[in-house]
Specification:
The protein is built from 6 helices and 8 strands; from the N terminus they run αβαβαααββββαββ. It has 206 residues and is of the alpha+beta class. The strands form 2 sheets. The chain has a 4-stranded antiparallel sheet with strand order 1-6-3-2. A 4-stranded mixed sheet has the order 4-5-7-8, with no helix packed on it. β7 and β8 form a beta hairpin. The termini are far apart.
């Protein structure tokens, strides 16, 4: 009789535990990972930072690398903020600035993807943000550029680009616009632009 009672109690406990587990809340704790689908460029949402604190040189940014075609026309360098550099740099603080740039080079470069990126850059956007653009080229359209980081330090904006070279690529000259959205407070203080390639080796000091 005692054995039967013990067996009954064990069964009752097991049934009770199963019932508690079934009634408990089950939550999915798997983190959501945001993926940037614009040439897989690392993106930090610019809305996260409306200013650039002196103690934190890392700039919140959003970047886009878009095809622009290749040109050896020297005007894109001569009219930039860095006329003697390998990488011409332009800054846009208004829609009008972007339109002037587009009109200046519409006959020698392709702006289809450029137009798609800046479509949302209206007057409201420029109240808080600005656009920094540089033009890069390669001997193959299979090469891929991306932005690794943007740092503002001692009035200098340092942009690090990564370059991926495929094992087998096309034999065509190509060019891209590297477009970076940053808080406009960065440009208010910036006097120098530096572009780094790959692991941070200085390619050209502007």
């Amino acid at each position: 009789m005692k054995k039967m009672l013990c067996l009954f109690l064990v069964i009752a406990c097991v049934v009770g535990l199963v019932g508690c587990a079934a009634s408990g809340d089950v939550s999915d704790t798997t983190p959501t990972v945001a993926v940037d689908n614009v040439n897989k460029t690392p993106v930090t949402n610019p809305t996260d930072a409306s200013s650039v604190p002196d103690e934190n040189p890392i700039v919140a940014y959003e970047s886009h690398v878009v095809y622009a075609n290749w040109t050896d026309n020297k005007s894109i360098y001569a009219n930039s903020l860095t006329p003697d550099s390998q990488y011409p740099v332009y800054t846009f603080r208004s829609k009008n600035d972007m339109n002037k740039f587009r009109n200046m080079f519409a006959s020698i470069l392709t702006f289809h993807k450029f137009d798609e990126v800046v479509e949302t850059c209206d007057d409201t956007f420029f109240e808080d943000y600005a656009v920094v653009l540089t033009y890069v080229t390669a001997g193959s359209g299979s090469v891929r550029y991306s932005v690794s980081n943007v740092i503002f330090n001692n009035n200098s904006l340092d942009i690090t680009l990564s370059v991926t070279h495929p094992e087998i690529g096309t034999c065509d000259m190509a060019g891209w616009f590297v477009m970076i959205f940053v808080p406009n407070t960065v440009l208010e203080k910036c006097t120098t632009y530096n572009v780094f390639i790959g692991d941070g080796n200085l390619k050209k000091n502007f």
